[in-house]
């Protein structure tokens, strides 16, 4: 299973076509100091997924990142935005400031 599919499986319940992404992630955040709204690393950690540089490189390949992989801060910001866009495109209610 690819990384994006793992993200979806952690947010969407089976048979669920719409989900309030912020509500799900905020509920999971109980007592955990992670900034899932701005950080792909924190988002992946909150979901219990691998957030290593290699895992993020794999996610970048899945999402067809065309930028410089040698600039991880730019890639991470792009990844976060793309994941939020994909969640929104697939029935996720995502706060407007987190997507294009």
Gist of the model:
With 100 residues, the chain is mainly alpha-helical. It has helices at residues 3-11, 21-28, 40-46, 53-62, 72-89, and strands spanning 19-20, 92-93.
Task: Give an account of the 3D structure.
This is DUF3597 domain-containing protein. It holds the Pfam family DUF3597. It comes from Duganella callida. This protein is mostly helical and 100 residues long. It has one domain. It contains five helices and two strands; from the N terminus they run αβααααβ. Strands 1-2 form a two-stranded parallel sheet. The radius of gyration is 13 Å and the shape is globular.
Beta-strand content estimate: under 5%
Strand order of the largest sheet: 1-2
Structural class from helices and strands? mainly alpha
- Compute the number of structural domains: 1
Ranges where pLDDT stays below 50 over 5 or more residues in a row are none
Count of separate DSSP helical elements: 5
Query: What is the chain-wise order of helices and strands?
Result: HEHHHHE
Question: What is the topology?
Answer:
Blueprint: H1 3-11, E1 19-20, H2 21-28, H3 40-46, H4 53-62, H5 72-89, E2 92-93
Parallel strand pairs: 1-2
Pfam families: DUF3597
Protein name: DUF3597 domain-containing protein
InterPro entries: DUF3597
Label this structure with key terms.
globular; single chain; 52% helix; mainly alpha; 100 residues
């Amino acid at each position: 299973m690819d990384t994006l599919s793992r993200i979806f499986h952690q947010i969407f319940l089976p048979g669920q076509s719409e989900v309030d992404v912020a509500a799900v992630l905020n509920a999971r955040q109980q007592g955990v100091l992670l900034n899932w709204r701005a950080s792909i690393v924190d988002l992946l950690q909150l979901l219990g997924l691998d957030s290593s540089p290699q895992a993020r490189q794999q996610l970048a390949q899945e999402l067809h990142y065309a930028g410089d992989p040698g600039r991880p801060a730019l890639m991470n910001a792009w990844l976060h935005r793309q994941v939020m866009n994909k969640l929104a495109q697939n029935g996720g209610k995502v706060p407007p400031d987190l997507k294009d």
